[in-house]
Amino acid sequence: MFLKSTRTAIITIALFTLITGVIYPLIVTGVAQVVFPEKANGSLLKKDGRVIGSELIGQPFSDSKYFWSRLSATSPFAYNAASSTGSNYGPLNPALLDGAKKRIQDLRAADTSNMQPIPVDLVTASGSGLDPHVSVAAALYQVKRVARIRNLAVEQVRSLVEENTEGRQLGFLGEPRVNVLKLNLALDNIQSTREAK
Questions:
Q1: Which residues on neighbouring strands pair with residue 45, listed in sequence order?
Q2: For residues 130 and 123, what is the distance between their CA atoms, to the nearest angstrom?
């Protein structure tokens, strides 16, 4: 009886390992590669044929000619996908206030003429620490600085933000948002097109 039960258990484990660990992943991967290969391969963004990032993972931007992303609380460096957990600070953690104060100083120093209230997502990290988006308000807050440094018309940069604004998911989930990497790529494209003329 014991040998029969053991043999049945081993066969069951081997069968389910084969089905759930090999066959199912191969089918799902194959279907994904056929139906939406770009998304299945990480939604990678390329510039001049070279992969420069993913539209799903944020990147740090500190140069004032670019739109800045949300803060990242991952360690040992910002936007470390291997360290993505509940990495944001709680409201009672002094590091949250210190990080927000530092970011406010950086934003004010980068654009001393901008006295608008700073949107909260520009001074706090997302839960994962990898968020590639900022709110529309956070992008619009940075328009004048980016336009001035790049010597572009404010309206041109503002319309670029509007063109790169993603709506609510399924029309009702979440808030409109702007993917910072895609927006900065669009900015670089405008600049290089202008310089080529």
A1: 53
A2: 14
